[in-house]
Structures are given as structure tokens and as C-alpha cells.
Amino acid sequence: MQEQNWGDEELWIVTASSASVQESQPTGQKSPTRDFNPYGSPSKATVSGEELKESRIKAETLAAQMSQFVKVVSKVFTTVEKQVEPKAGLHLDEITLTVEISGEGEIKLLGTGGKLGGKGAIELKFKRSDLPKAVQASETV
Q1: Residue 44 forms part of a structural domain
Q2: What is the pLDDT of residues 52-91, one digit of tens each?
Q3: CA dist., res. 80 & res. 101, Å (int)
Q4: What is the secondary structure of 36-104 as a DSSP string?
Q5: Domain limits for position 22
Q6: Domains contained in the chain, number
Q7: What is the per-residue pLDDT across 3-55, written as a single tens digit (0 to 9) for each?
Q8: Is 68 part of a structural domain of the chain?
């Protein structure tokens, strides 16, 4: 049995965006509270007043973006860890990051206090598999 390349698989990404500025500006035109025209254009799907947009991305695209993101984050925290004084007895044991995937498959780091914090976000938790030798030696003393 021949296995299909997983990179060719596609994933659905659903994103939400605020209603367009054009729709939110008052025009002075009267309109009913509901859409009474059954033959008009179909309304767009919304959640809490935000339009939903669906897009498909290849698994390979998402994997490449995630790989690049993790590579950069790894280098950042390796540099930070080197700045900590060994005598202080501190070490970086665990990192938790919250990321968002855009409709184009871009991986974005979410900061705190943002409007989007937690909305469709993915939490990545990196935990140290083993302690550095210097830390292990100081703990056994």
C-alpha cells in the first residue's frame, strides 16, 4: 500500500475578523432589523459580530512555518539562558508560548493583554528534558 505524502494534505483554517468599516458606518438609509429578502445574497457567517473566513493551507506550508518559528524561539531562549549567572542557581526549565495561525498559515506569537489573546490560539509548552551539567552538579552538593 502506497502512503500519500502528508505534506500534500490540506488543513482548514477558520479566521474571524471585525465587520468591514463600510458596513459599520451610518449611511442614513433605513433598513429592517432582519433580512426579509429570501432571494438576496446569502449572509456571511458570523460569530459575536465577527465575519468568519475559511481558507485551506497545505500541511507542508504549516510545518515549514512552525519549524521556522520554533527555530527562532529556540535561539532566543538559548541566548537568554547564557546570560544567567551560573552562581545564581537559576535555570530555564519550561517555556509556554501562545501562538496564532493566520489564514495564510503564518505562525504569530501572541502577547499579553491583546484583544486576540486566547481566541483560537494554540499553546506550545517546551519543557527541558534534562538539566545542564553545571546545574546538576550544584543540586547534588
Answers
A1: yes
A2: 888 899 999 999 999 999 999 999 888 888 888 777 888 7
A3: 26
A4: --TTSPPPPPEETTEEEEEEEEEHHHHHHHHHHHHHHHHHHHHHHHHHS-GGGT----EEEEEEEE-TT
A5: 6-140
A6: 1
A7: 667 878 888 888 877 655 444 455 665 555 555 555 555 556 666 667 888 88
A8: yes
